[in-house]
Amino acid sequence: MTATTSRATEREAAEVRRPGFFRRLWDRWPVKLAVLIIVIAWLIPTIGLLVSSFREPNLVSTTGWWTANIFDSAEWTLANYEDVLTSEGFGNAFLNSIAVAVPATVIPITIAAFAAYAFSWMEFRGRQIMFVVVVGLLVVPLQMALIPILKLYSQGAMIGGVTVFPDLDLNGTYMAVWLAHTGFGLPLATYLLRNYIGQLPASTIESAQIDGADHFTIFRKLIVPLSVPALASFAIFQFLWVWNDFLVALVFLGGTRDVRVLTQALAELNGTRGEAWHLLTSGAFLTMVLPLTVFFALQRYFVRGLTAGSVKG
Amino acid sequence: MADDDPGRGTVTKERVDSDELGAGGTAGVAILRIIAAFAVPIISFVVLWLTFEFLRDAEANRLVLALVAIVVGVAGVFALYWGMDLVVNLLPARFRESVRPFVFVGPALVILTVFLVYPAVNTTVISFMDAQSQEFTGLDNYKFVFTDEGMLRSIRNTVGWIIVVPLFSVGIGLVFATLVDRLRRGEALAKSMIFLPMAISFVGASIVWRFIYSFRPEGFGEQIGLLNGIWMGLGGNPVAWLSEEPWNNLFLMVIMIWLQTGFAMVILSAAIKAVPDDILEAARIDGATEIQIFWRVIIPSIMSSIVVVTTTMVISVLKIFDIVWVMTNGQFGTEVIAERMVRWFFRNDHNGRGAAIAVILFLAIVPVMWVNVRRFRAEEAMR
Amino acid sequence: MKKYRWLIVVMVVFAMIAAACGDGEADDGDGAETTTTAAAGDGDGGGATGEVSVFGAFSGIEAQAVQQVIDEKINAVKGYTAEYEGSDSFEEQIKIRVDGGNPPDVALYPQPGSVVEQGDLGNAIALEDLGFDIAELEALFGPYLVSLGMGADGKHYGLPTNVNLKSLVWYPKAAFDAAGYTIPTTWDEMIALSDQIVADGASPWCIGIGSDAATGWPATDWMEDIMLRTAGPELYDQWVTHELLFSSPEVTRAAEYLGQVAFTEGYALGGAENIPSIDFRDAPDPMFNDPPSCYLHRQATFITNFFNAPGDEEGASGLVAGEDYGVFGFPDIDEGKKGALGAGEMAAVFRDAPEVREFLNDFIAADLQCAQGAIEGVARISPNINVGPECYRDEIIATSAEVIVEALKVDGFRFDASDLMPSAVGSGSFWTGMVDYMLGGPESLPGVLEAIDTSWP
User: Fold this and answer.
1) What is the pLDDT of residue A24?
2) C15 pLDDT tier (thresholds 50, 70, 90)
3) FRET partner for C78 with CA separation of 20 to 30 A, picked from C145, C231, C369, C452?
4) Is the peptide bond preceding residue C291 cis, with omega within 30 degrees of 0?
5) Contact C86, C108 (CB under 8 A)
6) pLDDT digits (tens, 9 = 90+) for A183-213
7) Is the pLDDT of residue A131 over 50?
8) Helices B277-285 & A2-17 angle (0-180, nearest 10)
């Protein structure tokens, strides 16, 4: 809060200093208009979904959503939401999704942050090559990894009679899904975090080293607090991907009533030939609630000056 | 390779741990420390493991299970790193700092090897084998990849996707992040609106776009797709947007741009916010216009983030398949490489061809990585 | 202070490990106890214990219905339990699970071809090895369905668990009767009726073959129905195994019959070039316009779930069978060439255990199969010929079941060819070929059929 206020004051001070014509113009309606246009363009498709989620199923498939009459209460219904919320196992699926998504977000970020720090600020042989390989692994398609990993989980792996990966019988456990999401999320996490951590001012880190801090301390006391915006933004993305993931959970956790996650529960509602796809509209919004809350909750970490300030301070 | 730049990072002061212990005969404590150092990683692993066994077999309340899973899963990882760092501290001083980096990158490398390197190698091997991965067939699958009509179309289309999608999503994301940074109010709200599509599950997104592109010929009732609604309002006849070659490719790309711009915007916005205010103010005082500031100050300062976002975007475009799969099933000339890969591997049950297509994807990444290596080196040199 | 930190760490850690071990042991103990209890209580359940995992392609209300009958007829009364899991990406999932070494105990494949493939690869277990008597199964399902699961080694891998009927044409009964139209029994009569409808100012046919990631399949059903009625079941079987090429005169002729309906000016509502863009779920709706925009729609029994009338707020249930809509069998074309076209599921078995064997027997038994038919909104028909039409709640489904059972008895039933062909064709080039045909018009036919032949693996 204070950061924002002081920032606004600074900006006002700057404006007083130099109230250039372009700047004033730039600051006013063209910016707002441009922002508004982009926002509207981005919102229109979602509004279609939102409107449809409150309409009678039959109307959704017979008339355009933009023709809906806001004032005709006969056109509107909460039944779609009611059906989804009261469907069997929805609450359980919600809990399963949380149990999958939170660790599957935090674990890869932790591991990637350590790796990103090492890639940026530690000296060791093969550093660049390793980093490039890590980023290059981004391109490995998930679909090609599923069968080999499932095999590892269920049978382990032997090379020349030596067990290189034990048969852990992981299939159907949370750990199987966490590890899989960690593996698939790590390259991007490392890439993004290295980009950020590598740009932190060298002077800060060097002075800490001179003060006698070891790497673990520097990481814990300096890097992590300074990287909060980057950690927060990656946390959002990873959380979203895991939250909306269908395939990885289905493969490693399964789709039975006990363990299925939210996306599976919704797909199940829809039915074999899509006979109940109107439920997907309301379902899509219900599943969005939590990720959007997370996004808003983490917004406060995206304030200018937070990083710069702490670095300078 | 400037791996061992002696000018930097070697300033580390070695802490002489034994100094902290009382001088004489605290061997007992030392042994205790050694045990502790090894015990932390081992025990945290064991605890993690037992917890998962518990989670798998227990029939307790789901909420309790979820909570236990979260607490132990998250705390366990921190404990593992801490423990390993403790082990390294016990090493003789001269090894310590050459081993320590591997404590930091080690877990990442191990996990990546298991979850991505191994499958990639596996894929490469089966790309030389037959449909059921029983026998080697030489280069047959690659011959197929470069002669099949659908495959060739998919390569052509993918090139189009790689150009169009990153251009627009990074471009719009950048412009939006810059503009929104100048708003005094409503920045968070505006950003959330662009970010919103990322929060929609893919199932939701496919319905969203059905309400845009849906087509019904005359007689099949009112249009439920917005585009045809507008088009007919302007006096046109309904158009089957998704089967109008070659424009349908563009309509599919729009979906991806809509989904991914939020990603570019969030990353770039964070980068813009990290550009120090004093540099901007200095430029303003020097009389630079805002446009000039954008091109000469902001863009260069956030260049590495732009490269990162573009790289990520190019790679996700290479891997895109579900949009095409669900919207057109790859018909009407909308094939893309990853869609072909999934189709041949899973739908047509030909492991060899599917894997060969995947290998094409691996190779397509090489130029992108080359750009990144150059960027990486330039950045290190500047530091 | 610093010294003691280590001690604390050690203590905490040992406390944690002790706690964890305690949990683990307690847990193990529980597990053992439950097993013993179950084994003891087994006598009255009659047989095996344990769990059977069943994986299939159907989800939603059908999946709920199947789980419900399993709960009632097995889990509540038997010593073992069974759990059904459905996924609409079954084809991909089952490949992942089988190849990944984590197969379900029983998989209900919609494609008999895949069952045989799993048998040939040595993944699935032969019914003979599970103690089934093939002659008994043939008596139960008719020889045709059982023969579909026969592998290269002559053993059988597929156990029929469900069928449905596809050879149906739907019409808006009230308006149809009011206009004085009569139900055609031959193709020529159907064409005459179509011309009549065109003359009266409407379109006779509503056809849509759009289906997201499966676009094209409804047209392959058309082809199959016509093949059965022009070439007959024997040539149909040859077509399925590619002894009879797509470019053969017989298949070309069948495609031309389809072309007659699709391409004749005024027949297909919206025109042939739009057929691939019309979603099959939306396709029947114009029949319920007032007056109907079209009068005929060929589709399997499940389509009633998608019937929508404009302004009807109740959705599917607002339209009444026998009043608002009626149905007749796909008419004959050539003299003596007949057959009922359907599809269904076949169980492939991946684990041999007493409870799996018992489950298979219980699952195909008339008792359980009959119970399925009583659940509202479920269109699952039993392939067991002892399950009579009285088992089915819905009249149309009961009639379809009767047709199928009669056909199975006289070997007149044929399985959806696209589900029997290799998947590269059956769910690949055959689908896309039909789309290309609709878009390209009659002249494109030779090229389309040759392309399908070329794609045969």
Assistant:
1) 57
2) very low
3) C145
4) yes
5) no
6) 999 999 999 888 888 888 888 888 888 888 8
7) yes
8) 10
Chain B: give the shortest CA distance to residue A15, in Å: 10
Q: Do C100 and A254 touch (CB under 8 A)?
A: no
Rounded Cα–Cα distance for residues A148 and A158 (Å): 13
Say if residue B122 is in the same domain as residue B186.
Answer: no
* Contact criterion met (CB < 8 Å) for A192 and B209: no
Percent with pLDDT over 70 in chain C: 88
Q: B158 and B53 in one domain?
A: no
Instruction: Please name the residues in contact with A101: beta carbons below 8 A apart, sequence gap of 6 or more.
Output: A239, A242, A243
> What is the distance between the alpha carbons of residues C348 and C160, in angstroms, rounded to a whole number?
9
User: Are residue B205 and residue B96 in the same domain, yes or no?
Assistant: no
* A168 — pLDDT class (breaks 50, 70, 90): low
User: Could you say which of B33, B216, B325 has the minimum Cβ distance to residue C282?
Assistant: B216
C13, amino acid identity: V
Q: What is the pTM of this model?
A: 0.84
Q: How far apart are CA A62 and CA A68, in angstroms?
A: 11
Q: Which CATH architecture does the domain made up of C168-338+422-455 adopt?
A: 3-Layer(aba) Sandwich (3.40)
Most A-contacting residue of B162, B208, B255, B306 (CB-CB within 10 A), to test interface: B208
The region of weakest confidence among A21-25, B45-49, B281-285, C431-435 is A21-25
- Per-residue pLDDT band for B40 (boundaries 50, 70, 90) equals low
The angle, 0 to 180 degrees and rounded to 10, between the axes of the packed helices A29-53 and A278-298 is 140
CA distance linking residue B95 with residue B88, whole number of Å: 9
Q: Exposed, middle or buried by CB within 10 Å (0-12, 13-18, 19+), for C377? A: middle
* Cβ-contact A38, B172 below 8 angstroms: yes
Name every chain C residue with its beta carbon within 8 A of the beta carbon of B43: 13-14, 16-17
Question: Residue C103: CB partners within 8 Å, gap ≥ 6?
Answer: C94, C97, C123, C350, C351
Output DSSP code: residue B278. Answer: H
Residue C9 has a pLDDT of 41
Average pLDDT in chain B: 80
Query: What DSSP element (H or E) covers C161?
Result: strand C159-165
The 3-state DSSP class for residue A159 equals: strand
B250 and B338: one domain?
A: yes
B196 CB-near residues (< 8 Å, 6+ apart): A42, A43, A46, A288, A292, B262
pLDDT digits (tens, 9 = 90+) for C53-67: 999 988 877 888 889
Specify the CATH superfamily of domain C49-164+342-415.
Answer: Periplasmic binding protein-like II (3.40.190.10)
Q: How far apart are CA A17 and CA A13, in angstroms?
A: 6
Q: Does A77 touch chain B (CB under 8 A)?
A: no
Query: What is the CA angle B186-B199-A223, rounded to 5?
Result: 75
Q: Is B59 helix (H, G, I), strand (E, B) or coil?
A: coil
| Displacement of CA A233 from its chain's centroid (Å) | 7
How many other C-beta atoms can be found within 10 angstroms of the C-beta atom of residue B295? 12
